[in-house]
Amino acid sequence: MKAPLVIGGQPEYHMNQIEAYAVTSGPESFAKGAGAFGNTKIMAQEYRDQFIEEVNAKARARGLPLVALPEAVSNE
Predict the structure, then answer these.
(1) Contact predicate 76/70, CB 8 Å
(2) Is the residue at 73 inside a domain?
(3) Do the domain assignments include residue 15?
(4) Residue 38 domain-assigned?
(5) How many domains is the chain partitioned into structurally?
(6) Which of 4, 20, 51, 73 has the greatest CB tally within 10 Å of its CB?
């Protein structure tokens, strides 16, 4: 994620493909893809939680309201 170019603007997002799993090529490829997807959800939750904790630390130091942490992502 990149900061907005102007005040009040929207952040920019950049993505790169790391790996691809064809879910139609067979059960092994599907299982690898499903596992990678689940791992990515968990990693995203960890990044989100860390970001919120950092924001809350800054808010706490300024006496501002805190942001609630979202519930854990289910890997189902």
Answers:
(1) no
(2) yes
(3) no
(4) yes
(5) 1
(6) 73
pLDDT in tens, 34-52: 999 999 999 999 999 999 9
Across all residues in the chain, what is the average pLDDT? 86
| pTM of the predicted model as reported, rounded to 2 decimal places | 0.59
Q: Mean of the pLDDT values across residues 19-42?
A: 88
Is residue 12 within 8 Å of 6, Cβ to Cβ? no
pLDDT value for 63: 93
* Residue-number span of the structural domain to which 49 is assigned: 25-76
Q: List Cα–Cα distances, 63 to 48, 58, 66, 68, 69, in angstroms.
A: 22, 9, 9, 15, 18
Residue 42 lies in a domain: yes
Q: What is d(CA 8, CA 16) in angstroms, rounded to the nearest whole number?
A: 26
The b-or-e profile of 35-58 (16+ CB within 10 A means b, else e) is eeeeeeeeeebeeeeeeeeeebee
The pLDDT value recorded for residue 74 is: 57
